[in-house]
Amino acid sequence: MYNYAVSFSGKTLAQNIKASIIGASGYSGAELLKILSRHKHVRVEKLFANTSAGKRIDEIYPFFAKSFDTVLEQYSVDAACASDVVFIALPSGEAMNLVPELVARGKKVIDLGGDFRFQDVASYERYYKHQHRAAHLLPQAVYGLPEWNREHIKSAQIIANPGCYPTSALLPLAPLLKEGLIESSGIAINSLSGVSGAGRSANVDLSFAEVNESVKAYKVGVHQHIPEIASVLERISGANVGVTFVPHLLPITRGIYTSIYAPAQTGLQPSDVLDVFKQYYGNEPFVRFSESVIPEIKHVNYTNYIDIGFRVYPENGHVILLSAIDNLIKGAAGQAVQNMNILFGYDETEGLL
Amino acid sequence: MYNYAVSFSGKTLAQNIKASIIGASGYSGAELLKILSRHKHVRVEKLFANTSAGKRIDEIYPFFAKSFDTVLEQYSVDAACASDVVFIALPSGEAMNLVPELVARGKKVIDLGGDFRFQDVASYERYYKHQHRAAHLLPQAVYGLPEWNREHIKSAQIIANPGCYPTSALLPLAPLLKEGLIESSGIAINSLSGVSGAGRSANVDLSFAEVNESVKAYKVGVHQHIPEIASVLERISGANVGVTFVPHLLPITRGIYTSIYAPAQTGLQPSDVLDVFKQYYGNEPFVRFSESVIPEIKHVNYTNYIDIGFRVYPENGHVILLSAIDNLIKGAAGQAVQNMNILFGYDETEGLL
Amino acid sequence: MYNYAVSFSGKTLAQNIKASIIGASGYSGAELLKILSRHKHVRVEKLFANTSAGKRIDEIYPFFAKSFDTVLEQYSVDAACASDVVFIALPSGEAMNLVPELVARGKKVIDLGGDFRFQDVASYERYYKHQHRAAHLLPQAVYGLPEWNREHIKSAQIIANPGCYPTSALLPLAPLLKEGLIESSGIAINSLSGVSGAGRSANVDLSFAEVNESVKAYKVGVHQHIPEIASVLERISGANVGVTFVPHLLPITRGIYTSIYAPAQTGLQPSDVLDVFKQYYGNEPFVRFSESVIPEIKHVNYTNYIDIGFRVYPENGHVILLSAIDNLIKGAAGQAVQNMNILFGYDETEGLL
Amino acid sequence: MYNYAVSFSGKTLAQNIKASIIGASGYSGAELLKILSRHKHVRVEKLFANTSAGKRIDEIYPFFAKSFDTVLEQYSVDAACASDVVFIALPSGEAMNLVPELVARGKKVIDLGGDFRFQDVASYERYYKHQHRAAHLLPQAVYGLPEWNREHIKSAQIIANPGCYPTSALLPLAPLLKEGLIESSGIAINSLSGVSGAGRSANVDLSFAEVNESVKAYKVGVHQHIPEIASVLERISGANVGVTFVPHLLPITRGIYTSIYAPAQTGLQPSDVLDVFKQYYGNEPFVRFSESVIPEIKHVNYTNYIDIGFRVYPENGHVILLSAIDNLIKGAAGQAVQNMNILFGYDETEGLL
After folding, report:
1. Which helix (H) or strand (E) holds D174?
2. Are the CB atoms for A80 and A106 separated by under 8 Å?
3. ipTM for this model
């Protein structure tokens, strides 16, 4: 279990480190840069990009003007190895080509993509629709959900940073499943995401005129986060888990809102749910939960918090769980830095408050 | 069952009618005016409003400039009775004060609010939180969901126009429940609504700066549309129905998106679902359904269509139903005119295509 | 001058025509289809597209499901010539390749792009940055701004439909310049446009996550609509005209808002401005102007109206002109149909109210 | 002139101070709290509110949950005087009732409203439409535009924090006017603002459904920021200044975009403008200017920067100036803290980067 006091003790003793970002021109990469630039113990060493290599980061994101004028470079393993930790913020399927060599050279890797989140290669290949070329490394990859995996993260070489949707679904579901307050099948997860979750790309379906004043579900029943959610819940609860997951695209830039309908054990009381959340998350720095406050995306945007609300609804045998996160922070870059903090013994909240 | 040919035959024989709107300054009232102004057989007689009485409709909505300059009037039953049909677009709780006298004077009434949607007074009073002062009229009120109630609508005196959320949930669920393809309890309904659904009012929670770039659930487990959905499904299917319903407020002006997770009968095939939709909706003018097209709000906005998509998901025992409507049209004013067309023997699509 | 009575007289005598659209898969093309489908005298014959050829229009825009299922075809001049009028809704630079042959075969052409809006080839080539390959046809092309060019439109073979920004700027400025109420240089035109104005294309700069919660000016001082505005004003007023024009991209889908700061003649009174608007636009079906109502995009969206407001500001020697249009309707497809109505002697408002 | 080195030297010597906020429940008040909570030398002492008194700040803004749980209090001068500096974030017209007593008791006051921005009482009363009840204090109030008034701010008792629109217009215009690169009359200022600029209030005109997908100008020629802009420019340039100013309401939450059309001196070169910006702003920590980068709101949102772009347009005798700020930060709370930093000898950027 998380121990707040110990975590803080790392602060003054901590040594400074150097970090690089592969994929710095994407939204998650840029968000990582913002967070790392505020971090007491990190110096950002290299920013790697592909088509944007040769440009300054503040040309791509003038937001950084007067703060950062680093020139993006084409990736090379030698350049990357000048850092202590390498963040990979690339589309899934690319990290697997880079990680073996980085690991061989002793670097710590935090991958924001999906390549190292699965133990089961077949499941990966079925949902991601391409072959896994570094499957031999899967056993040593650690799933970077700090609230449930903190001890393993401390000594990891490869951290697989969780997906944005899974983060929003796992944190509310895991304690209830583990403690047997809900059934392990028949769970419905309805998620809503801002457009930045799809990355920074030229795609007519993501254009303002297509997305604005509309909503659509997509990848219904076939989204790659389905097996990620199910398999992590299975590891935590020890049971076979059945989830139905439907993501929706929303006309907002940032944020994920997840509403979960889970079959409740008969007689479940609101206080049971609250007790379990207190037990698991009472000391967690980035989890806020409440019986009375309903989460809203605007309460968490630009923060590393997840907000969780719930309602027991015995009229139809459900417990309703609601959560909100910033998809680019707790759903990506923020959680990655949280993992880095654990890995290097820093205060877990450093750079994130 | 709907008979397209018969419905069309009314067209040339139809007499023209006069219609009035009570609550013409609200969003639904204004939308009604737009639709009725295109209708071949209707003359808009009176527009009633309260605080806006004395103003011209194009002062409140300059959209109408050069088309309508009618002055809004304070309501009086005598003025209303110059019309053949009276639309009431007021907040729930107000229609019950006006309907008894209109009915007594032989007027047809189409109420867009919730006052006459329930047969069960206790349920109304529990969810609407005020007393019903015209409960004696409930037995003669007809629920105006044309696809399921067309015959009764033809001879109704009082039509209770369905709620926006119920319209979006009932149309996908009803045929599957009636034909026993899904179980009647454990159904989860996740709905997303644009802000116009909350009406035109001064409310800090509806202000742009509060709603934009955010999402929130609200009235979780206590929304007044829960018993409306459940009771209509019970009448249609003959079974006790259990629904969990969570509405969410979205940063869009118009539109409702509903995602439903229903426990499927074992062995349910996609073709079963498609067949049932064909059977019930194959000839319906305003229902579009598809196994392959996923509904999007932008496909239905500014129309009277409901779009329905679905996916059978045996991996977790669910059928997923997705629907989209324009909350102000199929969810309010459009459906009200559809009901009026049925009531007066006009082509059901008149004014609505 | 526009003569409402005569225009109406064409109605009953009018013969029906066939129309085709080249570029039907873009936003303007789809909007044209919506308008033409409501038009009493038009049958839509062919829809041409390039990369979307072979698809049904309701696959690209499911909005059209149950109304239109026409299959888009690859363009051929023979197929196009089965129509009486051909609308071209292609990016500028493409119409000039098609128009010569269509004209040679006696077809009426309404081009929504910029290729035929200039009399001055050099100016076209400087701003559009490519050669004009049909410059010999420019003298016979008629600029399709009905309020100022109605007589020439009646007998045109090629109608160059005005640009969206020019429509919003010319209509307020033209009468004041012509009557000498404002000076002909030093005019500043500040325009705001929704994203649909940029067309339906895969472009990261138009993606929701880039456009939302932001505003930017673009093409400052080099936009191709600058010479279009200036040259039309020069033809109308007979003076050399100097305009500064800055377009801005806004997080809305549809609509243009133009704010103009023009040096006023000394002693100019509000009543002078109002009188001139009454003189020129008092009988115009699609121009609404007011001294007291400030235009808003929501008042004109989904209509063919332009709303014009103004304020004389002697404190700084300016008259402020404000206008709003729907960029896809009065700024494109609606005005194109208005031109077609004039060309074929129909009621000018047919299909547009 | 700003001296970066000296300003930094205050850092280690600086004593810590206590600050209170009157009007902490509004958007500017909440933003102040966010910034002050990151400030090394400030302890937030009291949060005052009126109708929200008695609630915790994280009840009103759950964003603050787990960071701040301060209870808002009803204002009393005694409670306020426990602080070294008092920020007033109230609607204009209210600060004048509180400031005299605070000043009498020796407190430093930073007023984010308009009450102390004018030297000319008549002008204030004409535009704000109410009497000034503390006019005797106007001579000692210092206009808190750090880039132009830093020396006076250091020793001020009352700082009148500039308006949001004026900040966006003054910073680009002032150096050009002072150096005579533009004429002092005929200047047109076109500003676009997000909705948070109107404050947190229940107002149907600010509701999402009214603001979304629309734009409107408002207070055309009568906005209270007109005399603020003109009078500050007059003090800086020594000339009589004529500005035309039109604010517009936009469907964004935060941000101001200002486009200025100023008559340029004959022969003005881009390098002249650039040189003047370098001269005045080259060492300014929060001003970014560029000849090539066009400002965008997303580049400055959530920062204290103003971005300035420009283009000399001799074709029509104009220089075009473009600027973007976050209305709640550089346009309100950020600039207020910048002023506080100057006042107390802290590094001017403390809490703001």
Report:
1. helix D164-178
2. no
3. 0.95
Q: Tell me whether residues A62 and D305 touch, CB distance under 8 A.
A: no
Residue of A nearest to D282 (CA): A66
Q: Per residue in D257-295, is it b (16+ CB within 10 Å) or e — as a string?
A: bbbbbbbbeeebeeebbeebbeebbeebbbbbbeeebbb
Which residues of D are part of the catalytic machinery? 164
**Radius of gyration for chain C, computed over Cα atoms and rounded to the nearest angstrom:** 20
- DSSP annotation of D16 reads P
What token pair was written down for B1?
Answer: 């069952």
Q: Of B191, B134, B155, B160, whose CA–CA distance to B325 is shortest? A: B191
Cα angle A192, A195, A201 (rounded to 5 degrees) comes to 145
Closest-CA residue in chain D for C256?
D215
CB C7 within 8 A of CB C348: yes
DSSP class per residue in A310-333: EEEEGGGTEEEEEEEE-TTIIIII
Q: pLDDT digits over D209-222, tens only?
A: 999 999 999 999 99
Alpha-carbon distance values, B80 to B46, B99, B105, B175, B333 (Å): 7, 11, 10, 38, 19
pLDDT at position A15 = 78
**Closest by Cβ to A195, choosing from C200, C209, C253:** C209
Report helix angle B146-154 to B164-178, nearest 10: 100
Report whether B102 contacts B109 (CB < 8 A). yes
A146-154 vs A164-178: helix crossing angle, rounded to 10: 100
CA–centroid distance for A157 within its chain: 17
Pick the residue of C216, C219, C234, C240 with the most D CBs within 10 A to test the interface with D by mutation: C216
Tokens, residue C90: 């292609």
Q: Which chain B positions have a beta carbon within 8 Å of C302's beta carbon?
A: 302
CA distances (Å), B269 to each of B181, B276, B317, D10, in order? 9, 11, 11, 74
Whose tokens are 């970014």? That residue is D288
Give the pLDDT confidence of B312-327 residue by residue, as tens digits.
999 999 999 999 999 9
Name the pTM for this structure. Answer: 0.95
Write down all domains in chain A, each with its CATH number in brackets: 4-162+331-343 (3.40.50.720), 165-327 (3.30.360.10)
Q: Cβ neighbours of residue A145 under 8 Å, at least 6 residues apart?
A: A162, A167, A170, A171, A232, A335
How far, in Å, CA of B285 to CA of B301, rounded?
16
Nearest in space to D62 (alpha carbons), one of A307, B25, B19: A307
Cα–Cα distance, D329 to D35 (Å, whole number): 9
List chain A residues with pLDDT less than 70: 1-14
